[in-house]
Amino acid sequence: MKPVGIFQHTEVGAPGSIPGLLAELGVPARVLRIVDGEAVPQDPQASSGLVFMGGYMAVHDDLPWIAQELALIRRAVALGIPVIGHCLGSQLLATALGAEVTRAERSEIGWSRIGVAPGALAQEWFGQPAGEQLLTFQWHGDTFGIPPGAERIAGSAHCPNQAFVADGRHLAIQSHLEMTPALVALSVERNGAQMERQEAAGNPACSPRAEVLDDLDARTAEMRATLKRLYERWIQGLRA
């Protein structure tokens, strides 16, 4: 099987638990370090699937690699090559599929729960009943719309669109289920001032900084189990 291509845009936006999960599932992977200037490939057919990670930038920013990744996603979708996006990556996928990405009503930062949407598709992907509340880690100020023909499979109290599936094979996840204890700690180290400002402003979608590093092993293990279920479903569509 060709490797899955994982696109990393920032240091904090590392793939976390994803390479290990793919290895457990018998799927080779290669990290493309856009953060270090590695070029975005034009042809998606070198990969069996494409994974796009997060970043502080927005899909509308005038950065050459954003336009290049959007073009790559559109080519992959046209060829039936599965795409999965995390945070910024989910917004790139939504944009490529014709949906709008806008500022969210409020930023979501830190620990929260997302709810499995009603319907067979959401239960198929999450392996959980409708309404089940799943732990996740958030750090975003933008939100995506649902592309034409796609189906929302998760939402939250502060951000209704948390995940969608398109064409039965492409998955967008607004939050950071991929986080490891080290990545959570790095996020707080680098961006903790933003968390403090949101907390001081009374943002109900922001975790208190004093509590965000608690129980990291248990919390990230719970997210990893959720993400593994999603990837088990996603890899069913990979190209050989």
TrEMBL record:
Keywords: Glutamine amidotransferase. PROSITE patterns: GATASE_TYPE_1. Gene3D superfamilies: 3.40.50.880. It comes from Comamonas endophytica. This is Type 1 glutamine amidotransferase. Residues 22-181 form the Glutamine amidotransferase domain. PANTHER family: GLUTAMINE AMIDOTRANSFERASE YLR126C-RELATED.
